[in-house]
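stage 2 :: seqdesign
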């Protein structure tokens, strides 16, 4: 369903349109006398006596074709809370027969900054669907006309639009099936983002072999598709200050390789590239909103298949860092992709920090379910910034432990390290401990295990099920609050 928003200077017709109006938490409608007709005011006032005022949104049928929707704004409501109200409102209005609405922005006065913007942001985020491959698509349009003086500057609307575009792009990428979005196609799509001002470099297998990125290449060697490392640079500052770096795991489909996964739910492994999708969506967002920051996104794109040339359990490979890895399980492949990508990012760009994102372990879902991403970090300041940003946009993270005592679980008798902990337990922590070994110059680093957050079968506050785009808004908020 498409959302069309119009900004109107003229006064709206009080008696001929569906109206969305804002009131206080007690549903005191005395402030609405100027916004609705006297007959509608009397009708709504009378019906309110019989309604459950604990609800946040109440709908009144004025006629068979017209409704008035009252949205309750409590005191000290956060921006995230307003966005959730917008999402709740969308769930109500999408079922109406008449899909044109008018919002009187002046009914949201004396509240926190840009209530209308955040409310519409919630509506739009919730409205996303992926119907590309359906023969019958929902072609309905919701039209929302905004009236009144309480409307923020155009730059604020541009920022909301950029975040939505970045989030939707990430969701689109995750939603694509593996036969469409394989590494070859994915690299082409990223390359198309040059038109937004991003500097894109694509390293194919020949270049990766020359660089010595053997842990990344090893994962993809069983596939007929290529393997790639793609860098995206956004230079929003005139100076040459060190960039912020974001690294994503892009396993376009993960069969587990020779260590084959069970057939049940393997179809969900199309979203094993969600970490990379977040990075790509974030970089698109930064470019669209002309963010005043230098940033780089790096993604490793591979397909993990059990082909005749596939990597075997027991193989030993030398990483870009020079460290060797014994492959005990080919289904622990994401950390191998990230290992080379992280070291390359650190050496090439010398960033202020590195944040990597990956659907890395099922163990993090056991630990945190679908409420928090797992945060592992070598830096307290960066961790706090991520936690605070996550709370503000409700893309929450929970810090998990790293400790040298875990190293013995990934030390190998035959190489510098092994890619899994064969003893058992601490699956997410040992994976993060593995990644930490590829930070060579003490760069502040955080690893976000988003396995429980990237895809939702039942939907969340701001998504209707499927790919969530989790991480784009989180990282945008981190940048916005701390680095611009």
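stage 2 :: out
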């Amino acid at each position: 369903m498409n959302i069309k928003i119009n900004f109107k200077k003229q006064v709206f017709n009080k008696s001929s349109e569906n109206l969305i109006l804002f009131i206080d938490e007690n549903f005191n409608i005395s402030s609405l006398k100027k916004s609705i007709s006297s007959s509608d005011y009397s009708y709504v006032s009378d019906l309110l006596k019989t309604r459950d005022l604990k609800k946040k949104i109440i709908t009144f049928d004025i006629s068979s074709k017209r409704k008035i929707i009252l949205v309750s704004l409590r005191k000290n409501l956060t921006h995230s809370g307003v966005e959730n109200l917008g999402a709740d409102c969308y769930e109500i209005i999408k079922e109406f027969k008449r899909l044109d609405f008018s919002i009187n922005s002046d009914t949201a006065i004396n509240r926190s900054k840009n209530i209308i913007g955040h409310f519409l942001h919630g509506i739009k985020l919730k409205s996303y669907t992926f119907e590309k491959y359906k023969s019958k698509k929902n072609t309905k349009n919701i039209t929302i006309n905004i009236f009144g003086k309480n409307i923020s500057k155009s730059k604020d609307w541009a920022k909301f639009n950029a975040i939505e575009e970045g989030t939707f792009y990430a969701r689109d990428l995750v939603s694509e099936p593996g036969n469409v979005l394989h590494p070859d196609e994915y690299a082409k799509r990223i390359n198309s983002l040059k038109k937004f001002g991003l500097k894109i470099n694509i390293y194919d297998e020949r270049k990766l072999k020359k660089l010595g990125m053997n842990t990344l290449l090893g994962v993809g060697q069983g596939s007929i598709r290529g393997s790639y490392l793609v860098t995206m640079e956004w230079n929003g500052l005139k100076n040459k200050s060190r960039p912020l770096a974001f690294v994503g795991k892009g396993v376009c489909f993960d069969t587990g390789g020779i260590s084959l996964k069970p057939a049940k739910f393997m179809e969900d492994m199309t979203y094993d590239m969600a970490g990379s999708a977040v990075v790509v969506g974030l970089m698109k967002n930064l470019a669209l909103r002309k963010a005043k920051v230098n940033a780089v996104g790096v993604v490793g794109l591979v397909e993990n298949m059990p082909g005749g040339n596939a990597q075997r359990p027991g193989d030993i490979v030398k990483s870009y860092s020079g460290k060797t890895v014994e492959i005990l399980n080919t289904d622990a492949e994401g950390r191998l992709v990230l290992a080379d990508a992280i070291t390359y990012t650190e050496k090439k760009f010398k960033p202020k920090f590195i944040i990597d994102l990956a659907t890395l372990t099922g163990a993090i879902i056991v630990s945190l379910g679908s409420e928090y991403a797992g945060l592992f970090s070598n830096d307290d300041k960066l961790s706090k910034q991520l936690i605070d940003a996550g709370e503000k946009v409700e893309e929450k993270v929970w810090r998990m432990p790293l400790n040298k005592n875990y190293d013995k679980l990934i030390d190998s008798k035959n190489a510098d390290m092994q890619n899994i902990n064969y003893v058992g337990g601490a699956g997410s922590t040992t994976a993060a401990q593995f990644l930490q070994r590829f930070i060579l110059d003490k760069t502040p680093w955080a690893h976000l295990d988003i396995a429980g957050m990237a895809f939702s079968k039942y939907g969340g506050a701001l998504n209707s099920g499927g790919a969530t785009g989790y991480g784009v808004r989180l990282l945008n908020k981190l940048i916005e609050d701390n680095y611009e």
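stage 3 :: structure notes
- The mean pLDDT is 94.
- The domain at 160-482 is CATH 3.40.630.10 (Aminopeptidase).
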